Amino acid sequence: MLKKIDQWDVRILYAGMIALMLAVFVWFAGDRLLEASVFLSVGAVYAFLVVRVVSRSFRAFTVMLWSFLLNYWMLISLDVDGALDIPAAGPWFIGFMVGSIAGGYIWSGPGAGRERTQTRPRRPDADGKFSGGWRLALINAACALVLFGIGTAQLVLLSPTAPAVAALVVAVIAGWALFRLPLPLEIRNGLLRLGLPVVWFALAFVGGATDQMALPHASAYGALAGILIGGRYWSGPQFGAPRPPFNGQGRRRRRRKRRPKQQKQTQRRSRPAVAAAREKQAKDR
């Protein structure tokens, strides 16, 4: 009985959060409610699919989570530039949060109120590699296509110039090479964590100075799409499988073996006996 009450409490909490965010959206949109609802719906569906479907592929899920902030910054640029003439960034943000909550939790059944997780977590095979399949290949291909499409669309809306197109193409090639070439894990992660932000801020500065605000976004979308394309096998027996190295393949410290409880108990029991024997030997002397 208490478990059912707890489940209902959790579901009421999540539903209340969604209702609160929708109320904020209605207040925020005002007279532009119908127009802003488009980006609210797109953001909600985007987040729902990322949580429910894309989460089956760890790399695609990570990349699409990165794209959340990228989409938000890009929509802010569109709002500032006035390219769409409707509010986009705020509705997108609220829609993404609503879709994440709706898709990230179980709403009915025995596990109601719990966070939705994969029933069968992916684990490496005996050789340390992960299996593939057409589902993983389809998820990664669709995500790469979506990212490339968004990058192209924002390029057309913000600044359809030759440098912006070049930034998109070069970024796709760079992202592909970063995960396609057998680089050491430390070098790849370093380039990924430092290279992408540095390039984005540098191109943002250049784009602001030359009135080409699509430059940083084009490079980021291209790099993310290239990562998904280069980080997976697209033919052969490993079709759909991710390319190594993996983040879990680093050196691990050896853990000290824990002694069995019975052995510890016997040692504790033997200590008083050993001490008593030593005292007896000392008295005999």
UniProtKB/TrEMBL annotation:
Instruction: Show the segment(s) annotated as Disordered.
Output: 239-285
Which residue intervals are annotated with compositional bias (Basic residues) in the record?
250-271
Q: Which UniProt keywords apply?
A: Membrane, Transmembrane, Transmembrane helix
Q: Please list every transmembrane segment annotated in the UniProt record, as residue ranges.
A: 12-30, 36-54, 61-80, 92-113, 134-156, 162-179, 191-209, 215-234
- Highest rank taxon of the organism: Bacteria
Question: What protein is this chain from?
Answer: Uncharacterized protein
| Protein source organism | Cryobacterium zongtaii
